[in-house]
Write a structure and sequence with these properties.
The structure holds two protein chains of two kinds.
Chain A: E1 3-6, E2 10-14, E3 19-21, E4 23-26, E5 32-38, E6 44-50, E7 56-58, E8 64-68, E9 73-78, E10 87-94, E11 105-107, E12 111-116
Parallel strand pairs in A: 2-12
Antiparallel strand pairs in A: 1-4, 3-9, 5-6, 5-10, 7-8, 8-9, 10-11, 10-12
Chain B: E1 4-7, E2 10-13, E3 19-25, E4 31-37, E5 43-49, E6 56-57, E7 64-68, E8 74-78, E9 87-94, E10 105-106, E11 110-114
Parallel strand pairs in B: 2-11
Antiparallel strand pairs in B: 1-3, 3-8, 4-5, 4-9, 5-6, 7-8, 9-10, 9-11
Classes of the chains: A mainly beta, B mainly beta.
Amino acid sequence: AQSVTQLDSHVSVSEGTPVLLRCNYSSSYSPSLFWYVQHPNKGLQLLLKYTSAATLVKGINGFEAEFKKSETSFHLTKPSAHMSDAAEYFCVVSWPRGSNQGGKLIFGQGTELSVKP
Amino acid sequence: NAGVTQTPKFQVLKTGQSMTLQCAQDMNHNSMYWYRQDPGMGLRLIYYSASEGTTDKGEVPNGYNVSRLNKREFSLRLESAAPSQTSVYFCASSERGGGTNEKLFFGSGTQLSVL
């Protein structure tokens, strides 16, 4: 079965320090991978996506993620955290139409990022 | 640009009551989705509509029904609400459909409490 696991439910960093949010997936296929961000009381917004092109993907607001097939990981990073980055982050996988998931999206459990002044 | 609009934003129901959550998008997207978000569980797909006139079950369809009224609108109905349906509900849409490698656009959510 395909799945996605976010390894930390909560991450706390100081402003100006690096951010690392971890995501692992399991799959029999080559998935498409996404990171979404949800600010308090808001809907979700796409940060970046990987679709089998470059393994290092750059997104909005200075975030990037690296697809590592050998580690089945797609960790999200940012060199320097801002207060405005405090939010919940979701790692998401989608499977090809030919897979038993029929192209649906599977969301991770979410990682809450806190940024301290 | 309105994007994806959900109503209502908040709702409190008693067990056994029924209600319909409304969703509309103005981006001419083919596909629409309903998700529920529960603490520690991420978002789970309830139903989706790959194109106008079609609907399919997602991961957690029990207790819900949907209607794709037209290309713009996709409603979610709770016929007999249960406390287990207390959640935040998100409607989303995408251009081509099937949730493959394309971007989803989300509404701002409906916070539902069932007492």
